[in-house]
Amino acid sequence: MIRPTYVVLTFGVGVKLPNQTNTKTPVVYAIINLKLNRIVKNCEMPAADISDNSSTNGWFVLEIQKMMHGFGDCKQPLYETAELVENILKEQLIQFLNALFEVAAKSNSKKIGIKEFLFLLRHSPVKLRRFCKYLQVRGFKDYAKEDEFTRDMKDFCDIQSGNKKLNSALAFLQQIDPSCYLCSVADPTKPSPLIDDALKERQERIERMTSAMDVSQYLEYNKAKSTSFKRGQPAGKFQDWLLKDSPTPEFALNATAWSILSYFAYETVAQIVDLAFIVRRDNMAGQVSDAVQRNTVPRVSPANADLLKPTWSNSIKPLQTSEVTEAIRRFNNTHNSIFVPFRRNGVPPPGHRLLAL
Length: 357
Description:
The protein is mainly alpha-helical. Strands 1-2 form a two-stranded antiparallel sheet. The chain has a two-stranded parallel ribbon with strand order 3-4. The termini are far apart. About 55% of the residues lie in helices and about 5% in strands. The protein folds into two domains: about 35 residues, no CATH class; about 260 residues, no CATH class.
């Protein structure tokens, strides 16, 4: 039987071959396929080198979701919001590293140490005290790692006086500030003359949330609250995430510097959540203060109100990307003005708009 044979080319064009018998059709197919392969190879463009593994996006999204819950967000924060927070955090940390490199270059230092962090924090006494409190806690952890005999030979006063990192930090603050104001404010062993409004509001928000939890929920929350960028993570993950898409650092960072940088990353996530909740509070206040809505909002008389009922609900609305974006927009466009929560203390160098400072 003789029938026409069609070959469909890669370009979608049908070619009709001369009438062939069934025995010769495979030969014709083979010849045409060979020629088509040569044509396609000559016309092929080099494939783009696209690899999902080359990007570090999403490496810490799950950890950031847990941190956001620890700072007052709902139990399951939105993935896209955590992804946005991760992108903002990485940009902030890269700028923070550049600021540290500038300080090290001006001081002719060969590596990044505690002094560079202290120098950048000198314009923010509240955050400077938080950092010194972190150094104090690290000293307690180092003491806990010592053997039992060494711990028995020390008392609490010896622990305080033997905290080398904290003592060197206070000595450096006294060196750059002869008035001893920074040293007196930053010393965590003395009462603070300043009020940390942001930390106080964060603690109140967490208190309202945890008061509505049972034991199992609180244990789960406590596990989320203890999430870190370094603790429990593979070795080098934080460094790879931060530096994979960036040039090689000009100065060396030892293990202590990376631990301190992870602390500032944790604090940056906390401040992003704090500012996002301020945006939500302003939006809710604007809605209630409207003349029409103010008269339509259902009111509960104090006699009918259950004062023992927790004000926090498990069905709280998670933070939205729009709230985080608005918070960062306000922060970047607010200088030392009346907008205290979004104000950047001091006068940082141009271009250094860092949440950590």
